[in-house]
Write a structure and sequence with these properties.
Number of strands: 0
Distance between the termini: 41 Å
Helix content: 40-55%
Largest sheet: none
Strand content: under 5%
Shape: elongated
Order of helices and strands: HHHHHH
């Protein structure tokens, strides 16, 4: 695949699996060398090391964290639960008392559909 362009599906796989399951990612991209996958992950911002929070990630966290708590991890695939908890704490965000703590990805998607992200 030397010289081939990256597809949207490959980019999605990298952003979804790069931090969480590298061995699975290598199986899903058998025609790509590990060095090129790492370079693409860096280009996409999927690398944890040295990666700052984007404006969109901060807006998403501020909007959804009070209602979803750490279940907001389904909306921030490149962030661990610990990253989210630390950022929410530094932003002084609190979870509303009646929030269900562990929501599935489908429940989070339904909540987001009902409560679209505002423009900041």
């Amino acid at each position: 695949m030397i010289g081939w362009h990256w597809t949207a599906d490959e980019d999605w796989l990298i952003t979804k699996h790069y931090l969480k399951n590298k061995s699975e990612l290598r199986k899903k991209l058998p025609n790509r060398k590990w060095g090129s996958i790492k370079a693409r992950a860096f280009h996409l911002g999927a690398c944890k090391q040295g990666r700052y929070w984007t404006t969109l990630e901060i807006a998403m966290l501020a909007h959804a964290y009070p209602f979803l708590g750490l279940s907001v991890e389904h909306l921030l695939p490149n962030r661990s639960r610990n990253d989210i908890a630390m950022k929410a704490s530094s932003m002084k965000l609190k979870v509303l008392k009646r929030t269900h703590r562990n929501r599935s990805a489908e429940t989070v998607a339904a909540w987001l559909a009902e409560n679209p992200l505002k423009r900041y």
